[in-house]
Fold this protein.
Amino acid sequence: MEKLATLEIRVTGKKGQFDLTPDNYDIKEISVILNSIEDLLYPLVKKDRPTISYDIEAGSVRHLFKTSMQAVIGFSAIMGEIQYSGSIDFLEYRTANAIEQLQQVAYQKNYAFEILTSATDKIGLVISPESQYIRTNNILVDVEMYFYGTLTNAGGKNKANIHLDTEEFGSITLSTDKGFIMDQEENILYKKYGVRALGKQNIETGDLDKSSLTLLELIDYSPKFDQTYLNSLIKKAKSRWADVDPDEWLSEIRGDYEA
């Protein structure tokens, strides 16, 4: 069984005239922490990542997460680098974005977030109204992109969207309009599709803002090996390459250098 370790986010501050405790800590504030933790520990691996368990305790408000020891040790090293450099520009997009969200809450609520792990007895990082953990290189541009995967959900009570399970990015959500979903004559669930989408990408790091994705086009996608089609392409190519010496051609491509 894989060894587990603990990451703790301790929140201190006031709720009115009273100190924060689990009894006066609102569920919306808990959701900010829960939405951040996966991106802090596993920014690149969403699908089949190790389990993250959760508990909340008093003193002031302690959020306790248990997961893979390797992930916790890795994040401890990241916190050390943040403290040393005073910057989050070097982080993966999702990790930096999660820290920025905590920083915004610290500004708005006058809270302090102390992050520590069982890998060390020292506080790894403090995010407070006095800290400045905001990226300086955060230039996002609109880009068009393609994704391929299985469509696992479609709909939404207020905002319509589809969910696509991809190998490269895990499950992604793309906003659309209700009319698009209503106009589908066939059941589109659990079928493989290509998706043309519009989203935002960091021009410095290439990281994708998955929360910005909008569906442009749904494309039928049935990847399969077609031997007949491949043979027809080979047959067409033979006539065009009949007069080409393959050794000479490769030599020209690689550069015919003699020792």
